[in-house]
Write a structure and sequence with these properties.
The protein folds into four domains: about 180 residues, 3-Layer(aba) Sandwich (Rossmann fold), CATH 3.40.50.12780; about 140 residues, Rossmann fold (3-Layer(aba) Sandwich); about 100 residues, Luciferase, domain 3 (Roll), CATH 2.30.38.10; about 100 residues, 2-Layer Sandwich (GMP Synthetase, Chain A, domain 3), CATH 3.30.300. The longest helix has 17 residues. Helix 2 packs across helix 3, helix 6 crosses helix 7 and helix 10 crosses helix 11. The mean pLDDT is about 90. The termini are far apart. The protein is α/β, with parallel strands linked by helices. It has 16 helices and 29 strands. The protein is about 30% helix and about 25% strand.
Length: about 550
């Protein structure tokens, strides 16, 4: 086993190679070797120290530009600071609400500095009064101090960075990860039993660097293996999904990960396959949100003429509290899918093969625990469950986070007896994990449990519904049966009253479940995180507050 390295050590070693990052935007590529990045990071480290920051201070990074983000992240780490990634505002219209939420995060985390763009600097200066410990707001363009070696090297036990979750299920929490956590996870998922990465691989990614899959899976994975990684702006992929596939073609990409929605978006939006050559793509990772087997099948079928192989798919499971990855299936295998009885899964918590009667659910295997790590399915009493029984997914091993930053009570609630309680539900079959959903999102009606994503998938494929913009949840007083609510953005092709009736019939036929309310809302109402997850908790909160609005 290779010796674990801190981020500065990994950067110093990678700087001895010819590899680096390619910051791409369409056909305009900007090459930066790891050696270039190390020099820039040393300047950033010296500039941060010159600004009065001291070892252990938390520095919030609000930087959409990937080169500035990575340079500052490495620089803060070299300086002995604690870099923390925060999401930048989506639009200027979101700025007031964004600053309100971000100010509370900065205050709770005791942030000493914010590093952001020139355009956002005045906005962060304006909220200093609400963040007593916030001393300075800086811009990478002003990092002009001479590069200098640090006065003390980081240790593996130091915090490498804090990653604030995107808030898909709750308010953002700061996941504190040590250098040892990061190194252990990267070594495990890039090792021979998972990705089997080498210096000859080329990564291609459009994923935001303030998300674990983009930062750890793609950018830092490339750094630790000394290989090239092409980084595209996330907004470029959202506008034109074909740019992701063109980048893989142009750079002969071999490794690229994305959430389920990205593969679905390519199926729906990419019309012209001419010029695409995906034959080099050997690892097509899929994770960060529930994986829909029909999505993978449709992608493989559509892009087979461009050289894509379904054996390249690598469905996986992970979460930020475990750095990134937790389970991987065998490489080079077609996705393993099980079709189970929806009725038995929801009523008895057991995954029974579908016998042709009642509703069926197709679930994809996310594989087994990473080498050196452990996985367990536990019942409500905490006891381990046997195969094909649904319970909470627990994880243990060197990738489990140090804890939630400055949230000791929440950390103690989440990590118990060495096990990370993920809050996710799943079962084991043949030793492999099948993920069913989140425990806190379960809808309970007349004592039966329903997974919201199953209802969402059933509605998502219907005519008149905008794909990927469906949210299902239970509403009602605690201790009472949930009212079943489905929020839908329409595609504009079906009248609202007709669409409401169709949705109720579909859910009734498939699950024997009555939908109490179908909320047809205007485009853009259903939010998604940058990892592709629908913001179910946020949508539910707005529904209960009466602030969702209606269809235009």
């Amino acid at each position: 086993m290779a010796a674990w390295r801190t981020l500065p050590q990994a950067l110093a070693l990678a700087a001895k190679t010819d590899a680096g990052y390619c910051f791409a935007a369409g056909d305009a590529d900007r090459q930066r070797s790891f050696a270039d990045l190390q020099i820039a990071a040393l300047r950033a480290a010296a500039s941060l120290r010159a600004a009065g920051l001291r070892r252990g201070d938390l520095v919030a990074l609000v930087l959409p530009d990937p080169e500035e983000f990575l340079t500052t992240l490495f620089g803060a780490s070299i300086a002995g600071l604690v870099p923390a990634s925060l999401y930048p505002p989506a639009t200027s219209g979101d700025l007031p609400r964004y600053l309100e939420l971000t100010a509370s995060i900065l205050h709770a985390a005791g942030a000493r500095a914010v590093v952001t763009t020139r355009a956002l600097t005045p906005s962060f200066d304006a909220i200093k009064g609400r963040c007593p410990q916030l001393a300075v707001v800086l811009c990478p363009a002003d990092f002009d101090a001479p590069a200098a070696d640090p006065d003390r090297q980081a240790s593996l036990d130091d915090i490498a960075f804090v990653q604030f979750t995107s808030g898909s299920t709750s308010s953002p929490k700061g996941v504190a990860l040590t250098h040892a956590n990061v190194a252990a996870n990267i070594e495990a998922f890039l090792g021979p039993s998972a990705v089997a990465a080498s210096a000859h691989d080329v990564g291609v990614s459009w994923l935001p660097l303030n998300h674990d899959m983009g930062l750890v899976g793609m950018a830092l994975g490339a750094l630790y293996t000394g290989r090239t990684c092409v980084l595209l702006p996330p907004e470029l992929f959202v506008r034109r999904p074909t740019e992701w596939l063109r980048a893989i073609t142009r750079h002969r990409g071999t490794v690229s990960f994305a959430p389920n929605f990205a593969y679905d978006l390519c199926v729906r939006r990419v019309k012209d396959l001419s010029g695409l050559d995906l034959s080099s793509w050997r690892v097509a990772g899929c994770g960060a949100e529930p994986i829909h087997p029909p999505t993978l099948a449709a992608f493989a079928e559509k892009f087979a003429p461009a050289g894509f192989r379904d054996t390249s798919f690598l469905p996986c499971y992970g979460l930020a509290e475990h750095v990134l990855a937790a389970t991987f299936p065998p490489r080079g295998r077609r996705p393993r899918t099980e079709v189970v009885s929806a009725d038995t899964l929801t009523s008895a918590g057991a995954a029974v093969p579908h016998d042709g009667t009642g509703a069926a659910l197709a679930l994809v295997s996310c594989g087994s625990a990473l080498p050196g790590h452990r996985l367990q399915i536990a019942g409500e009493d905490g006891a381990p469950l046997g195969e094909r029984l649904v319970g909470e997914i627990l994880l243990a091993g060197p990738s489990v986070m140090l804890g939630y930053y400055k949230q000791e009570a929440l950390t103690a609630q989440t990590i118990r007896d060495g096990w990370l309680h993920t809050g996710d539900l799943g079962y084991l079959s043949g030793g492999e994990l099948f993920v069913c959903g989140r425990a806190k999102d379960i809808i309970i009606v007349n004592g039966r449990k329903y997974h919201p994503q199953d209802l969402e998938w059933a509605v998502d494929g219907m005519g008149g519904v905008r794909r990927g913009r469906v949210v299902a949840f239970g509403a009602g007083e605690r201790g009472q049966a949930d009212r079943v609510v489905i929020v839908v953005e329409p595609s504009g092709t079906v009248p609202s009253d007709v669409l409401t009736g169709q949705i109720r019939r579909e859910i009734g036929n498939l699950f024997g479940l009555y939908v109490d309310d179908v909320a047809i809302v205007r485009s853009g109402t259903v939010g998604r995180t940058t990892s592709g997850k629908v913001q179910r908790a946020a949508t539910k909160a707005r529904y209960e507050q009466g602030s969702l609005g209606g269809r235009d």
